[in-house]
């Protein structure tokens, strides 16, 4: 069951409360966190997602559903060991098996460049495997010298059927010379640790810092109170419902390649693959993203399979298809989190935080992923101060290579790790000074009059009313009533604990110039095209690419709102580099605050053109033309009017237009914002612990988030609930476990736990609204923000429940065994 409530702060200053509704007793529309329509009334409406019916009926086309005539099937041989020299590879037996068309190794692709890394730690010296163009390299499409993690691709087989290809893999004989293994970032940096790459001395990719070290150290040295924690933000495995897949199709007649892939960024992958891996003309590669079954950050990366299906399609003269398995995904697709941290907070006896310092060892895995180093440094380090007005802050990150799967983004990446360390420190500090954790937080929130607020670590928060948001969370969670609830739980043999976590999440990745300073080797703007057809129907084409965010619904609302037409008249297209304008893709909660503003600005260009043309059609001066409600009319004479459909046909014909007005309605905008946007919020978790078993149940969960102006609250509600469950998964059960030999023990869903429906708590969801000044819609990111605080909220709640036993911290995941041992006085 979900309780939902809405609260809006207009331009940050005033407050309007919308009330509370029980979802079980309300209509479907009332189940949405109430959002007043804004703009022209279409935005803010909880329209049903037009993508859902085909998904629910099983009619959507995923990569696995693409079966081109003559398709052959590829299988990839991954290393069974974590670190070893490759002495020999014998493929003769595999080549003789029925149905086998080709067996290939690294020796077959010597003219293929390695995959590049395009987000390096900005402003510091860094070390990467080499790339021929002098760029940071990542990994080869197939490794021929050594393997560096279990699953490292060594060879590929192409056969008539997937079964035949898989059988041939088993016939390939590889001889290895084992090498020592290291799986932890801090261990990889010690003298004498196994060396992964010749070009990376001591396995150190970069030592990166932000903030003021001297000021922070001085504040800590003179502080009345200091608290310290050693934290493990454990490695987790992204688990979208659809594993990755790729289909390559080479046309020998035209020399053109087509790649169908489960990708978040088809335009980026087109450029990187053509220019930096395959060395082919950009205009000879087309990338298509069909329906993508979730990503959580995993599908924005270059992977070897993308290049391999294209190369092998050309070699064989027929399409080549590859679809991963769940175990394959867990051993090859980028993984998340994985920081080992020592953190310090300093403050006064009366609850004022004066400094925070963090030292983090970030595990990049065996190879740098496409953007992994930036995720591990800037997104985490610059975010550690959260919602708090702290005078001195400093973060240092040691980014290291180990014998594990490459690190990448995971929903809330960097921001979640930062929130965890800060919110655990705040609770530890509150305990040390004997002050209520809520009171400490409220005392240190950035006051609304300080916005825009420089957090001293590199982010300038755009807008916010943190006190309003925080107080709303305390009210909705009935925080004041927790002592009574604790007593009632103890009477039932349960320990009840409450945990708070507040956060700020940098979102809306852009602007391009700023991202270049953070080490991004490319642009981060977004684009949209709108074409009005002679029938009055509208096509919106965006450079973004959905992985389940209902772009087709929400972008149609944006265009319809601006043009004053019915959203049913608008069709949205994306995910095909041949048809869509160039764009950066979907990641970092940027779709509604980057692509949607591009749509809105394009619609405004069309309206401006229609006003000019309307003067001709209406026979009046341009300053007498009014555009409203999908029509133009003469100011003061509404009878002299042209409808949107009439205008579309008139512009299609182009009759009577002066030379300065081109016929037709077709406009494009490239949007690059002046800065990021910064959604924020406060979450409260309530847990009950069974004293006999140690089982922890989240019995209630309150989330009050602020994502600025919301285009479709029904869509955002689903994202908020899904994000919370993602965070609860890390807190309670998810853990990518590597043994001392580098073998991934949690390599399938029988050994890697994910939250299920019965793990979902009772949600009470609220909102505040502080529009961002950095885009024309006032939007902030929403898709991943609610993943940022849950882990901290839950662990804080568990520690609260166990505090009378002297428990000050417990590492994630908070399994029943860990809690059971702490209940019996054992150290974790």
Total strands: the figure is 30
Which parts are unreliable, with pLDDT below 50 for 5 consecutive residues or more?
7-34
Beta-strand level of the residues, as a percent range? 25-35%
Chain-averaged pLDDT: 94
Question: How large is the count of helical segments?
Answer: 21
Gross morphology is globular
InterPro entries: Ald_Oxase/Xan_DH_a/b, Ald_Oxase/Xan_DH_a/b_sf, Ald_Oxase/xanthine_DH-like, AldOxase/xan_DH_MoCoBD1, AldOxase/xan_DH_MoCoBD2, AldOxase/xan_DH_Mopterin-bd_sf
Protein name: Xanthine dehydrogenase family protein molybdopterin-binding subunit
Pfam families: Ald_Xan_dh_C, MoCoBD_1, MoCoBD_2
Region (Disordered): 1-23
Describe the overall structure.
This is Xanthine dehydrogenase family protein molybdopterin-binding subunit. InterPro entries: Ald_Oxase/Xan_DH_a/b, Ald_Oxase/Xan_DH_a/b_sf, Ald_Oxase/xanthine_DH-like, AldOxase/xan_DH_MoCoBD1, AldOxase/xan_DH_MoCoBD2, AldOxase/xan_DH_Mopterin-bd_sf. Residues 1-23 are annotated as: Disordered. Keywords: Molybdenum, Oxidoreductase. It holds the Pfam family MoCoBD_2. The chain has 828 residues and is an alpha+beta fold. It is built from 21 helices and 30 strands. A seven-stranded mixed sheet has the order 5-7-3-14-11-12-13, sandwiched between helices. Strands 2-1-30-29-28-20 form a six-stranded mixed sheet, with helices on both faces. Strand 25 (631-634) and strand 26 form a beta hairpin. Helix 11 (415-433) packs parallel to helix 20 and helix 19 packs across helix 20. The protein is globular and about 85 Å long. It starts with a strand and ends in a 5-residue tail after the last helix. The relative contact order is 0.13. Residues 7-34 have low confidence and may be disordered.
């Amino acid at each position: 069951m979900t309780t939902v409530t809405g609260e809006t702060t207009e331009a940050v200053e005033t407050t309007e409360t919308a009330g509370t509704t029980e979802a079980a007793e309300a209509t479907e529309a009332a189940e949405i966190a109430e959002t007043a329509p804004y703009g022209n009334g279409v935005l803010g409406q909880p329209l049903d997602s037009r993508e859902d019916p085909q998904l629910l009926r099983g009619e959507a086309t995923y990569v696995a559903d693409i079966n081109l005539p003559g398709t052959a099937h590829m299988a990839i041989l991954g290393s069974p060991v974590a670190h070893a020299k490759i002495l020999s590879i014998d493929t003769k037996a595999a080549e003789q098996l029925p149905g086998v068309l080709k067996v290939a190794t690294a020796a077959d692709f010597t003219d293929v460049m390695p995959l590049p890394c395009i987000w390096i730690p900005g402003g510091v010296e860094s070390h990467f495997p080499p790339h021929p163009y002098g760029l940071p390299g990542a990994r080869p499409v197939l490794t021929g010298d050594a393997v560096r993690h279990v699953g490292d691709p060594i060879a590929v087989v192409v056969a008539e059927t997937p079964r035949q290809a898989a059988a041939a893999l088993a016939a390939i004989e590889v001889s290895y010379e084992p090498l020592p293994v290291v799986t932890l970032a801090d261990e990889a940096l010690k003298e004498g640790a196994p060396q992964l790459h010749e070009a990376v001395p001591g396995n150190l990719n970069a030592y990166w810092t932000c903030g003021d070290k001297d000021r922070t150290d001085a504040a800590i040295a003179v502080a009345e109170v200091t608290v310290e924690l050693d934290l493990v933000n454990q490695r987790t495995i992204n688990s979208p419902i659809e594993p990755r897949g790729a289909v390559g199709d080479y046309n020998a007649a035209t020399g053109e390649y087509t790649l169908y892939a489960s990708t978040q960024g088809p335009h980026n992958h087109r450029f990187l693959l053509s220019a930096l891996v395959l060395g082919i003309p950009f205009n000879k590669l087309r990338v298509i993203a069909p329906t993508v079954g979730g990503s959580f950050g995993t599908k924005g990366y270059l992977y070897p399979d993308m290049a391999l299906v294209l190369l092998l399609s050309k070699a064989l003269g027929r399409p080549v298809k590859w679809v991963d398995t769940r175990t394959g995904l867990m051993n090859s697709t980028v993984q998340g989190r994985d920081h080992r941290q020592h953190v310090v907070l300093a403050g006064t006896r009366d609850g004022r935080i004066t400094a925070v310092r963090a030292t983090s060892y970030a595990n990049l895995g065996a190879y740098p992923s496409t953007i992994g180093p930036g995720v591990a440094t800037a997104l985490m380090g610059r975010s550690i101060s959260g919602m708090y007005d702290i005078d001195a802050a400093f973060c240092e990150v040691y980014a290291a290579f180990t014998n594990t799967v490459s690190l990448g983004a995971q929903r809330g990446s960097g921001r979640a790790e930062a929130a965890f360390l800060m919110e655990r420190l705040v609770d530890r500090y509150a305990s040390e000074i004997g002050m209520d954790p809520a009171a400490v937080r409220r005392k240190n929130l950035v006051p609304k009059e300080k916005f825009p607020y420089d957090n001293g670590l590199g982010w300038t928060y755009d807008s916010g009313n943190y006190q309003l948001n925080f107080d709303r969370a305390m009210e909705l969670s009935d925080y004041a009533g927790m002592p009574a609830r604790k007593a009632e739980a103890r009477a039932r043999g349960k320990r009840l604990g409450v945990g708070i976590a507040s956060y700020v999440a940098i979102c809306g990745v852009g602007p391009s110039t700023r991202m270049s300073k953070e080490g991004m080797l490319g642009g981060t703007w977004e684009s949209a095209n709108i074409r009005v057809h002679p029938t009055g129907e509208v096509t919106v084409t965006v450079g973004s690419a959905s992985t389940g965010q209902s772009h087709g619904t929400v972008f149609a609302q944006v265009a319809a709102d601006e043009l004053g037409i019915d959203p049913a008249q608008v069709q949205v297209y994306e995910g095909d580099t041949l048809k869509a304008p160039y764009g950066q893709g979907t990641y970092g909660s940027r779709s509604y605050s980057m692509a949607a503003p591009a749509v809105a600005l394009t619609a405004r260009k069309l309206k401006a053109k229609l006003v000019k043309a309307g003067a001709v059609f209406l026979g009046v001066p341009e300053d007498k033309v009014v555009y409203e409600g999908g029509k133009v009319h003469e100011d003061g004479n509404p009878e002299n009017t042209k409808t949107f459909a009439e205008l579309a046909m008139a512009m299609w014909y182009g009759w009577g237009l002066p030379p300065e007005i081109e016929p037709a309605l077709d406009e494009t905008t490239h949007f690059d914002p002046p800065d990021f946007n910064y959604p924020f919020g406060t979450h409260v978790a309530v847990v009950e612990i069974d004293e006999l078993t140690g089982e922890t149940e989240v019995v209630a969960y309150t989330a009050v988030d602020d994502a600025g102006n919301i285009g479709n609250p029904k869509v955002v509600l689903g994202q908020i609930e899904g994000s919370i469950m993602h965070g609860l998964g890390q807190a309670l059960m998810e853990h990518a476990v590597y043994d001392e030999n580098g073998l991934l023990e949690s390599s399938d869903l029988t050994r890697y736990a994910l939250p299920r429906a019965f793990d979902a708590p009772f949600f009470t969801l609220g909102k505040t609204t502080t529009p961002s000044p950095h885009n024309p819609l006032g939007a902030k990111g929403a898709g991943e923000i609610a993943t940022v605080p849950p882990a901290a909220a839950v662990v804080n709640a568990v520690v609260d429940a166990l505090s009378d036993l002297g428990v000050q911290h417990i590492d994630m995941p908070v399994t029943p065994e860990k809690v059971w041992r702490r209940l019996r006085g054992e150290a974790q």
